[in-house]
Design brief:
Blueprint (H helix, E strand, L loop, with lengths): L15 E4 L2 E4 L11 H15 L8 H33 L2
Antiparallel strand pairs: 1-2
The structure holds zinc ion.
The site of zinc ion has 7 residues, from loops.
């Protein structure tokens, strides 16, 4: 199987791993800014502290799920617009 780093395009297979469905090389992985567990725990604590006054607000887990869903919708919308332009260019430019 041939895979390439989504960020730099490297195809050195021994240095590429798959992270949540995306191929990334060992050089780019440290630049992604992925949080360590301790940082995530701090975020949870900070979030939950703000939420104390409004318990009906979403939990941290729900908030992360929501953000991922919203981001996915935005991504699809922007991609559809560009795909449409790309498709129309084939017709218009002839
Ligand atoms: Zn890379």
């Amino acid at each position: 199987m041939h895979s390439s780093c989504f960020s730099c395009g490297s195809t050195i297979q021994s240095q590429i791993k798959t992270l949540y469905g995306y191929d990334v090389c060992s050089s780019c992985e440290p630049t992604l800014g992925l949080y360590k567990d301790d940082t995530i725990r701090k975020h949870i604590a900070s979030y939950e502290k703000k939420r104390e006054g409004v318990p009906e607000n979403p939990t941290y887990v729900q908030e992360v799920d929501y953000r991922l869903g919203a981001m996915e919708k935005t991504y699809i919308l922007k991609r559809l617009k560009l795909l449409h332009i790309q498709n129309r260019l084939k017709v218009i430019e002839k």
